[in-house]
Amino acid sequence: MGTSSDHRELTPVSTDPEWENWKWQIQNRIRDEEGLSRHLELTSDERESLKKCEELFSFSVTPYYLGLADPKNDDCPIRLQVVPRKEEWIPRIWDRPDPLAEESYMPVKGVTHRYPDRALWYLSHVCAVYCRFCTRKRKVSQSSQTPDGEDWKQALEYFKSRPEIREVILSGGDPLNLSDSKLDFLLSELKRIPHINQVRIHTRYPVTLPMRITPEFCAVLRRHFPVFIVTHFNHPKELTDFSREKIRMLVQDGSATVLNQSVLLKGINDSVETLVELFYGLTSAGIKPYYLHHCDEVYGSAHFRVPISKGVELMKSIRGRISGLCVPLYVVDLTGGGGKVPLPAEYLEEEKSSSYVFRNYRGDLYEIGY
Ligand code: SF4
């Protein structure tokens, strides 16, 4: 834990009656050192990094999400995700602005078509919270990067012209930053294309801005059933009663299937205890843990990366101890646009002429026949 350089009385993040209004949360985001220092005891490292961060990636956090942070402990897992640290400024040879080469596979502004049957559609540059490990920090928070109405038309024409596209993923920034009527329009257009089998929405708003899940938004989802929502919880602290209630609403009122992708982050969730609590917590909230990602090689994120060998060992300790329903697939998205590769633990110890020898999660050997 770092030392405080400011001994002013800290104020609660908000008692405003508008707190449950998602637009109020967006408008009242904390965006600078002065705002943040009213709520957290900032260390000198955090203060210096906040000043410099505008050069590389914006800083922003909702009152709701900041309310989950420990005001006195700079090692708090919420704080580490949103408040910049000096390690962001240390360049590493492998780090890239666009590690997944999304801009190289972009036939139309905003559309990344890398896998044959899937296309990702970047729809908004705004996020409620700017995560320090974000893969798209090259463009997130920059309005010039967001497609406009003409780009939308071209994207829809592209989807129509490519029968191999079976799935469209609405992404960003956060696509839930669009209004319900715009989302309704986009979902209607996509569902009208006969070869599109499913639509997925990638959003961190259930984590950072759960008040965005409203009865009106759920009504939109219901009209376009089935819609798959993939959210992004990284730590059990993020599974608040409020966010759980909103997930329940998504599932029950929106008829949505909700999945989660986490990033394995050093000092935040890289222990068996934290991951088990997270995976059980997600499942009990009605969310299927889907992916656990190795942190992409985006610039300024090296201090978050956990060695793959450690990630494999963590998953090996977890698999077998908890239900398979709670266990996500550990993957690395290959730098350069190679796509996702699963990182399975090795259980097969030996292949003999007429049998196999396996080591189970407890470390015991078992031999089975061909
Ligand atoms: S919510 Fe997603 S897109 Fe937005 S800053 Fe965080 S990781 Fe990046």
TrEMBL record:
The keyword Metal-binding applies. GO terms for molecular function: 4 iron, 4 sulfur cluster binding; isomerase activity; metal ion binding. Residues 113-325 form the Radical SAM core domain. The modification N6-(pyridoxal phosphate)lysine is found at K340. Its cofactor is [4Fe-4S] cluster; pyridoxal 5'-phosphate. Keywords: 4Fe-4S, Iron, Iron-sulfur, Isomerase, Metal-binding, Pyridoxal phosphate, S-adenosyl-L-methionine. [4Fe-4S] cluster binds at C127, C131, C134. Belongs to the radical SAM superfamily. KamA family. This is KamA family radical SAM protein.
